[in-house]
Amino acid sequence: MNLTFLPLTTLSGEPTTLPTGHALLIVNVASKCGLTPQYEGLEELQKRYGDRGFSVLGFPCNQFMGQEPGTSQEIAKFCSATYGVTFPMFEKVDVNGPQRHPLFAELASVPDAEGEAGDVQWNFEKWLVSPSGTVVGRFRPAVEPMTLTAEIEAALPPVRL
Questions:
Q1: Which domains, ranges and CATH numbers included, belong to the chain?
Q2: pTM, rounded to two decimals
């Protein structure tokens, strides 16, 4: 399925959709998780590839031991002040269960490298989306963002001369 038409809301409350024509790394994030330092690697990827048609997209989620309890304003302040996050952040969503956001309903159907699909396991699970809007990879929470450079480079849109 092409994910670019699903309605989304930014962290500041603006309606939007996924950017088209870009490679995207969609990540469910949390501010009070042992994996929260992955924000640093996510921001590094954004800086390294942002001008080449790539963006990290952060989706806060409070479903894993209440590790994202803040308001949108608190989340934005934490991400900016603590990790210098410049990539787009979206409203807090459910990634599992009956209130799962439609984006994550689609993403959960994608298998990881071991062939396992299904519910999001924890904070900082990642999906790489091609410029055409299809998922080309799913990476579990323990996968460090900076280990994905080869996959991201393969997914970048072609350079236009």
A1: 3-154 (3.40.30.10)
A2: 0.96
